[in-house]
Amino acid sequence: MQDSQPNNPLHGIKLADIVEELEAHYGWDGLAERIDINCFKKDPSVKSSLKFLRKTPWARSKVEDLYIATFCRDNPWTKS
């Protein structure tokens, strides 16, 4: 079986895994500094963040971009 999205660094990665890895790396305060959204500022949790991010495409995009910039530096999608 061939990978249908070979250039997509997020292919096969769940949003929950993205949020958990970013929180482990930056902490909630660090995420709130980098992405100004309330789900990272006020009583943050993975569950509440996922609920918000699944309904808010612009915020999800910012989180995905931060994940790529943080963990996928060798990927061709990332900007130099």
Radius of gyration over all CA atoms, rounded: 13 Å
Poorly predicted runs: none
CATH topology label? Transcription Termination Factor Rho, Rna-binding Domain, Chain A, Domain 1
Range of strand content: under 5%
How many domains, in number, for the residues?
1
How would you sum up the major sheet?
none
Features:
80 residues, Transcription Termination Factor Rho, Rna-binding Domain, Chain A, Domain 1, globular
Describe this structure in words.
The chain has helices at residues 15-34, 38-41, 46-55, 57-71. It has a single domain (15-71), classed as Transcription Termination Factor Rho, Rna-binding Domain, Chain A, Domain 1 (Orthogonal Bundle), CATH 1.10.720.30. The protein is globular and about 35 Å long. Helix 1 packs across helix 3, helix 1 packs across helix 4 (57-71) and helix 3 (46-55) crosses helix 4. By secondary structure, it is mostly helical.
